[in-house]
């Protein structure tokens, strides 16, 4: 029993790796049980149990009469998605504040010249979107700038956490845009990062998100 459990665990890891590394892209159908058993050198029952484990974790989904497909390439994304379905906008903003304040501080410390060019370009695009007033463009451009700031922080775990929350953050931004709140320019935030002023960068993003939190809780 111990040996079989170990075999199943190893098979799960092999299948998971094919999902995570993009061998099986999201939306694609994975090989049949027979093909996988032949490729990995294990029995079909082992494949069936390993696949079921990844179905349970949310990476794969079975479609009757069609096969098994890749639903997601991140178990973290699946787990967070299940939680986010039931949280309040206030909770999302509080998490954004926690992540983005530190991201802004780190970005000011670690930004490169390429980051500077990217942030200024995205900020200009954001300003244009807000001046036109197109909601979809406003959300897209604002989200792109915030993600670029997190990327400039040069912390892969922080970026992974943020990217797994992008859908919820996009919804948060849309909710903010669709209220009567005026746009709060990100010029000072971007320039603080460009100047390497960690405290100013953290202060700017904190104040920006705090305005929306106060509006929700007042």
Secondary structure tally: strands: 2
The description of the largest β-sheet is: 2 strands, antiparallel
From the helix content, strand content and strand pairing, which structural class follows?
Answer: mainly alpha
The amount of beta strand, in percent, is under 5%
Gross geometry: elongated
Helical stretch tally: 11
Percentage of residues in helical conformation? over 70%
- Cα end-to-end separation: 59 Å
List keywords for this structure.
two-stranded antiparallel ribbon, mainly alpha
Please write out the topology:
Layout: H1 2-20, H2 33-40, H3 44-57, E1 60-63, E2 67-70, H4 75-84, H5 89-110, H6 113-132, H7 135-152, H8 156-163, H9 166-177, H10 187-195, H11 198-217
Antiparallel strand pairs: 1-2
Helix pairs in contact: 1-3, 2-3, 5-7, 5-9, 5-10, 5-11, 6-7, 6-10, 7-9, 10-11
């Amino acid at each position: 029993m111990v040996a079989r459990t170990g075999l199943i665990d190893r098979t799960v890891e092999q299948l998971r790796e094919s999902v995570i590394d993009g061998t099986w892209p999201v939306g694609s159908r994975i090989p049949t049980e027979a093909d996988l058993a032949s490729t990995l050198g294990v029995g079909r029952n082992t494949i069936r149990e390993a696949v079921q484990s990844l179905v349970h974790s949310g990476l794969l989904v079975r479609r009757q009469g069609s096969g098994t497909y890749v639903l997601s390439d991140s178990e973290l994304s699946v787990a967070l998605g299940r939680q986010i379905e039931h949280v309040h906008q206030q909770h999302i903003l509080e998490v954004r504040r926690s992540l983005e304040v530190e991201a802004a501080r780190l970005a000011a410390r670690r930004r490169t010249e390429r980051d500077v060019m990217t942030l200024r370009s995205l900020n200009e695009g954001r300003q244009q979107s807000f001046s036109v007033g197109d909601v979809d463009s406003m959300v897209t451009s604002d989200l792109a700038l915030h993600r670029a700031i997190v990327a400039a922080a040069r912390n892969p775990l922080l970026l992974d956490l943020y990217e797994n929350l992008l859908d919820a953050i996009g919804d948060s931004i849309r909710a903010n845009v669709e209220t009567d709140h005026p746009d709060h320019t990100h010029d000072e935030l971007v320039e603080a990062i460009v100047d390497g002023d960690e405290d100013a960068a953290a202060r700017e993003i904190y104040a920006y998100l705090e305005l929306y939190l106060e509006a929700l809780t007042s």
